[in-house]
Design goal:
The structure holds two protein chains of two kinds. By secondary structure, chain A is an alpha/beta fold. Helices cover 34% and strands 26% of the residues of chain A. Helix content of chain B is 37%, strand content 25%. Classes of the chains: A alpha/beta, B alpha/beta. Chains A and B meet through strand 1 and helix 2 of A and helix 6, helix 8 and helix 9 of B.
Chain lengths: 235, 258
């Protein structure tokens, strides 16, 4: 079986043109892979480049060089060099992402935010909303909130909307950026359970978890990003 | 994913003597894709939009459209009549000022129905029903169907313009600052509407805007223009979250947070 995600010799730096072209290296020579049913945790101190790696994998950040090889519909796609249409297709069908912060859009109800990835894949809106409701219920989001746009929700509520949206499809790769950061213990264990279910279903997962307990519960192996850091982080 | 682009723009340039309106712009647009052309005043974005929508003859370059019969036709090798037919059937053009895209002295229903008649529909009852259906889709109350747009607010006029453009089932819609000049809450409603319709109808759209938030919300891809040139382009969220060019970085960093 093809490895769902292979990262090969990826380099990235930011060039801050508004600061006279100051170059901030982010990561150097990153290579790793994630197998189906595996949950790999990105470890390392804050600012080392963990979120940046996830964003590069998702095509949200560009890479300077290297390849990000994703198994998509029976072929291998290099997200680092694919055209925008292909990246969007990979996101729609193969690779999901639970971002650290929810970007809210006016007027769209939480239930529809969660249902959207399923609707994009052709599921009928009613069926998608039903499935969205199941996930929001599992995450203990009060029913009264489902028809409201999430912009006024608390951090923890927004995060649960984000998680539900990321978990609703059957994508083969799932990227998780601090999915439990604002959650209480009860909901943290719900998320741990949801991750275990995805693993059992063969999903390849890569995540950032600052919470030690969650990390212990979900990690198959920990990949220390410090080894890829070209910078020295102040102690 | 379909194999062929709907729209192919190759090296389009428009010069006014020595002044550059736009220069060497090339891109393809696929069915269902929304492209935002972003830039500040004087960037050339409106010039480009006009050149590619047959409203302004380019100095150089070609614009090809994938006709319903499967053939690519060069827009500027068509007759004026053919171009106008295309504009009325396969295409839509939403102006920044709705008064430019509406007939202000005929009723709302007629504004929408006219487009249907222009493509050969003759059954009055059907036309009126279709017009009423579209008015409700753009959230204009049914009892306004016989009112003239002169009596509508800016937001309502803009929504009517959208209905007028979409009633013929176009495959490609051009929009020039569709939310420009509208109040924020009105903008939100309009953007939500456009987003929904584009998704539901699988439309391709090219949207000129100076507002990066509009680009973020509506577009899959984005082109940043400055002084007539495309200085950066790519996946919208990539260009906004990881801008590479100095000007793009300046634009993105200049947005105020609420």
């Amino acid at each position: 079986m093809t490895t769902p995600l292979v990262v090969s010799e990826v380099f990235k730096s930011f060039t801050m043109h508004l600061r006279d072209g100051l170059v901030l290296p982010v990561i150097a020579n990153v290579s790793f892979s994630v197998a189906a049913g595996e949950c790999v945790v990105l470890g390392g101190p804050s600012g080392i480049g963990k979120s940046s790696i996830l964003k590069m994998l998702y095509g949200n950040y560009a890479v300077d060089s290297g390849q990000i090889l994703v198994a998509h519909r029976g072929r291998i796609v290099d997200v680092a060099h694919a055209d925008p249409r292909m990246v969007l297709e990979v996101r729609r069908d193969s690779m999901g992402y639970v971002s650290q912060f929810l970007r809210t859009v006016p007027r769209v109800a939480a239930l529809d935010v969660v249902a959207e990835p399923l609707v994009a894949r052709g599921t009928a809106p009613e069926a998608a909303r039903e499935r969205a409701g199941e996930l929001l219920a599992k995450l203990n989001l009060p029913r009264e909130l489902w028809s409201l746009p999430p912009s006024t929700f608390s951090g923890g509520e927004q995060q649960r909307v984000n998680i539900a949206r990321g978990f609703i499809t059957d994508h083969t790769i799932l990227l998780l950026d601090e999915p439990t950061a604002s959650l209480d213990a009860k909901n943290r264990s719900v998320v741990v359970e949801m991750i275990a279910e995805k693993r059992a279903a063969g999903v390849a997962m890569l995540g950032i978890f600052h919470d030690e307990e969650v990390r212990e519960a979900v990690a198959g192996r920990i990949l220390d990003v410090s080894q890829f850091s070209p910078r020295k982080i102040a102690a | 994913m379909s194999d062929e682009p709907l729209f192919k723009v190759q090296d389009v340039s428009k010069f006014y003597g020595n002044r550059i309106g736009c220069k060497n712009v090339s891109f393809d647009l696929w069915p269902g894709e929304v492209l935002a052309i972003v830039g500040e005043s004087g960037s050339g974005k409106t010039t480009l939009l006009n050149c590619i929508s047959t409203r302004l003859m380019p100095t150089a370059g070609s614009v090809q459209y994938h006709m319903r019969d499967g053939q690519y036709r060069d827009l500027y090798h068509m007759s004026e009549a053919e171009r106008r037919f295309l504009m009325r059937t396969d295409w839509g053009f939403v102006h920044q000022n709705p008064a430019d895209g509406l007939r202000m002295t005929v009723s709302a229903g007629a504004n929408v129905g006219e487009r249907l008649m222009a493509v050969g529909n003759r059954h009055y009852g059907n036309i009126r029903d279709t017009a009423a259906d579209w008015l409700s889709r753009v959230e204009i109350e049914a009892d306004r169907i016989d009112d003239q747009p002169r009596a509508f607010s800016g937001g309502m006029r803009q929504r009517l313009q959208i209905a007028r453009n979409l009633v013929t089932g176009p495959r490609l819609v051009f929009m020039d600052e569709p939310t420009g000049g509208l109040d924020v809450s009105v903008q939100a409603r309009l953007l939500d509407l456009v987003r929904g319709l584009v998704n539901d109808l699988g439309l391709s759209a090219i949207i000129v805007t100076h507002d990066l938030a509009v680009a973020r919300l509506l577009s899959h891809r984005m082109m940043v223009m400055k002084d007539g040139l495309v200085i950066e382009q790519g996946l919208t969220d990539r260009v906004l979250d990881d801008p590479r060019e100095p000007y793009t970085q300046l634009l993105v960093s200049s947005i105020l947070q609420v």
